[in-house]
Design brief:
This protein is mostly beta strands. It is built from two helices and twelve strands, in the order H-H-E-E-E-E-E-E-E-E-E-E-E-E. The longest helix has 18 residues. It is globular.
């Protein structure tokens, strides 16, 4: 009898040990870490690696995530945008992301003002504590595909977005680091 109790204790301990790496070193379970994405995030240009983009010091990028049941409402706001020497007006975009691993078609704003929006195929899923967004579509430069991986820093004060892009002109990589805004909840 004592051997059975001992064996069952080891089985329970092994199961608990197997589950704890899924939470990472953070003590919060995945659902709590995912909820921590909600809020307003402001780009920290000094900590970010923008690849071939070289925005001016006054460039501002704010990203807002709001959890609405199983949907994630994402809003982006950019100011002082300059592309190849052309100043652009403030840009706003929004999308409802459904992290179900299924492909959805959404309309995204055109790259330049005055151009029509384009249809983009989007697949969103949680991979542990990471939100992964795969996008593909057609633009004025031909086929475009992007992969975005979002995750929080260990202390939850930064949102990191890793972007890999592919176009006919080549591949690109960026690492954007956002700080939680003071007015965020």
């Amino acid at each position: 009898m004592k051997g059975i109790i001992m064996r069952n204790s080891w089985i329970v301990a092994a199961c608990l040990a197997a589950l704890s790496p899924a939470w990472g070193q953070n003590s919060q379970p995945p659902a709590a870490r995912r909820a921590a994405f909600a809020g307003i995030w402001r780009l920290d240009l000094k900590k970010s690696s923008m690849g071939s983009d070289h925005p001016d010091a006054n460039y501002g990028f704010t990203k807002t995530f709001e959890l609405k049941g199983s949907t994630i409402a994402q809003k982006d706001h950019e100011v002082n945008v300059d592309i190849v020497g052309f100043a652009l007006p403030e840009r706003n975009s929004s999308a409802d992301l459904v992290p179900d691993g299924q492909e959805h078609t959404i309309q995204v704003p055109a790259f330049f003002p005055g151009m029509p929006p384009t249809s983009t195929h989007v697949t969103v899923e949680w991979q542990g504590d990471n939100l992964v967004v795969q996008e593909s579509g057609q633009s004025f430069i031909g086929p475009v595909s992007n992969s975005r991986r979002y995750f929080l820093s260990e202390d939850g004060t930064e949102l990191i977005e890793l972007i890999t892009g592919r176009t006919l002109f080549g591949d690109s990589e960026q690492r954007l680091v956002f700080a939680r805004a003071a007015d965020s909840h």
